[in-house]
Structure formats: structure tokens, C-alpha cells
Amino acid sequence: MDRNCLNVDLSKGYPVGSDIEYECGVCGDALASMPVCSVACKCRNVIIDVDAGRVAIKDNSKLKARVIAT
Ligand SMILES: [Zn+2]
After folding, report:
1. What is the pTM of this model?
2. How far apart are the CA of 64 and the centre of ligand 1, in A?
3. How confident is the model at residue 9 (pLDDT cuts 50, 70, 90)?
4. Is-contact 40 51, C-beta < 8 A?
5. Which of 10, 30, 33, 51 could covalently link to 20 via disulfide, CB atoms 3.0 to 4.6 Å apart?
């Protein structure tokens, strides 16, 4: 397991931050957790809707959140 991976606790909501990104375990796309405009991964398992201020994830078990190394 990548040591930069966060333990995603869904009961507390999804972690967001300028230094946090999500990685879809299905297609492998990485998405910023605070994008400027709405984004989705290639397979649309992970959708970040900026206008609605929410993160929509179809399969939570396939989501990884990690701290971007600076
Ligand atoms: Zn995907």
C-alpha cells in the first residue's frame, strides 16, 4: 500500500484539500480533490461536481485518496 494513501473514512465525508487527490482504482485516473471546474475520471466512477459542491463516487471500495508529495 502506498504510504501516502489516506484512510478514507466515508462516515466523515471525503477528505478534500489542495494537497489531496483521488485516484480511481478502476481506470487509474487521478483527480484533484479541489478542482477549479468539475472533473470526472475516464470511467466516471469518480465525479467531482464543483457547482454542486459534492463528490460522487459509484464504487467507494475503488477509491483511493492520497496526499500529493510536495
Ligand atoms: Zn475511473
Report:
1. 0.78
2. 11
3. low
4. no
5. 33
